[in-house]
Amino acid sequence: MSILYYDPFTEFDRLFDDAFAARFLPSTTIETTEGGRAGRGTQRRGPWRPRLDLHENKEANTVSAVFELPGVKSEDVNIDVHQNRLTVSGEFKSDIPPDDPGYVVRERPRDKFSRTINLPAGVKPEDIKAKLENGLLIVTFPKVTPEQEPRRVAISS
Predict the structure, then answer these.
(1) Which of 12, 88, 150, 154 sits a CA distance of 20 to 30 A from 71?
(2) What's the distance, CA 80 to chain centroid?
(3) Tens of pLDDT along 119-139?
C-alpha cells in the first residue's frame, strides 16, 4: 500500500485563488496605453505555484517530486526543509522589463514562485537530492528511513 503525502489545503488555496481571480480580476481585461495600443492584461497576485508530479519508486524506496520550472536557472531556485516540509521557491527572471510596451499578451510567469510539500517523518536534509534539467526540478527523498521500518520484538519467556 502506498502512502501519499498530500496537502489538500494547497489545492483549496489554488481553487479559491482561481475562482476569485476570475470573478474580480478578469484576465480578458485589456488596458489601452498612450497612442491607443493595447497594453497588458490583469496579472494574478501572489506567488505562482509550479506544477508538481510525485512518483514513488518501490524498488529504491524513494519518492521523486518533479516541479515544472521552465526557463529558471538553478541559482534562482531555493530548496528549504523545515519541520518535515520541503519548500521550493525562487523567481523567474527576465531581461525584458515588465512594463515593456511591446507586449500585447504575457502569459508566462515572471515573478516569484513557491510550492511546499510534506515529507515523510524522519527524512534528514542530507538524504534529499535535487537536480534541474530541461526545465524540470527533480527532488528525490527516501520514502521510509531505516529507523522507521517495522521491527519484530521477541517475547522472552
Answers:
(1) 12
(2) 12
(3) 888 788 899 999 999 999 999
